[in-house]
Write a structure and sequence with these properties.
This protein is an all-alpha fold and 308 residues long. 74% of the residues lie in helices and 0% in strands. The radius of gyration is 24 Å and the shape is flat.
Length: 308
Amino acid sequence: MDKKFLYYLIKRVLLAIVTIFLVVTITFFIMNFIPGGPFQSEKSVKPETLAALNAKFGLDKPLGEQYVNYLKGAATFDFGPSMKLDGRQVTDVILEGFAVSAKTGLIAAACALVLGMVFGSLAAVYHNKIIDRIIMVVSTAFVAMPSFIVATLLLWLFCIQTNVFPPNGQEPGGLVLPIISLMLYPMAYVIRLTRSSMLDVLGQDYIRTAKAKGVSGTKVLFKHALRNAVTPVITYAGPMIAFIITGSLVVEKIFVVPGLGKYFVSSITNRDYSMVMGTTIFLAVIVVIMMLLSDILYKIFDPRVDLS
């Protein structure tokens, strides 16, 4: 590992720490400055009960002291107990939901990347031919179609009409449709990225030289063209994977998947401060890590990138 690359990694790690710190700080103060509180609901709460709850979760302390205590807990990923889920620690809830979301999301992301690059390459190779036109029409439709529409159509077709798959994501085979729902949009986006990049690469002089030397079309495509065309996909893959594996509210809601997405949204509506901040920080950490990995892979696939 050269010194410039090592310096770049150190700089990115430090930047990641600062980013996460800012996310923690902004989330904390936004949640505390919003009118209301986690224990205020439509039903009246007795003042003594409210005081006891605030004392239990440390909400009766000065805001500065709450912030310092929260930073100490966040540094060790200890977000304390949930304010709405009795007896549950936020970290345990996050890990439980993430195990499901990550399983579904990783399969969806892998399928989206592989199929997206394959179909994107085909579209570029058969540019302006019938195969290219079909792939682009389908990918455009998937990019424009919201995930809740896709998930609802799949549920209606494969669960209600044909009963091929169970509608509940917790049953055997129940994750097939959620995976398809999650992969279609990123797959379509990867198709368009790969096609555009591949068309640019196929027009380069070194590709024409390789063809003139008699190198087979398959070798030119996969060894020379695809390696250089994949860099925009790598840039997109980092945040895409991060957001998919941390759960999709719509897809998880439609297919009753007990993932992290439902906890994130329910914590916001319930004003569960500890859960909101815990899930937000967890998402930020995943995004930062995936962005860092994307940058590393970008350099590996394209050594010409100047990291200075």
